Amino acid sequence: MDLDIEGLRVIVTAGAAGIGLRIAEAFVREGARVYVCDVDEAALAALAGSHPQLLTARCDVTDRGAVAAMFDDAVARLGGLDCLVNNAGISGPTGPVHEIDPADWDRCLDVCITSQFNCTRVAVEHLKRSANPSIVNLSSAAGKFGFPNRSPYAAAKWAVVGFTRTIAIELGQFGIRCNAILPGVVEGERIRRVIEAKARVAGKSAGEIQDAWLAHASIKELIQPEQLADTIVLLASPRGRQTSGQAISIDGNLQALV
Asked: Tell me, what CATH number does 126's domain have?
């Protein structure tokens, strides 16, 4: 299927590894021009050899000054902007709410939701000039279920959905569509760390925690990052032009988080 996005100009935050890199790769395969930012300097350096077609820069998306400078650089090098993928996020702390360190709470919300505000507010003026403008925000299955011992992460990911639906209304007048992706249990290093942390708190094995999660899904297998990437690319293409304000679950019909 030709998605008609040859030359689409895309920024992916936290795009040097993991889900972000899979998203960037999917756009490149369809002919898009992609700029990724990340705080991981080693991962960014590795991209020069493995993915020379990607434009890269270091940026802490919780730092508004750094975000403004990153957008100046990205728009200059891309020649404009058509799509912003707010992918940056962290797992945050694991434990009951009354034991969470406030600094860990603040950091989780800063990275998982405030960074999306930081990037979106700068992106809007550039996206207004695009013929096919879109924003895709990464939320989580934790953005629709309670998630015991993960209150900062769940709060942030619920906030992403509210943020997305609100800006979809505000920005529709400019033709900018905005959607959120809610992944389930995604294969990768981050989910392994989360599972291990949950296992320690629960006094169970990592395998027991993973099995308990998948027991609540109709399709009992881990989500592959490429599945998220393919959906995001479709949403950013002209074929997604009437899809906005949606919270799209890619989770095997997950019914709960435990």
From this structure: 3.40.50.720
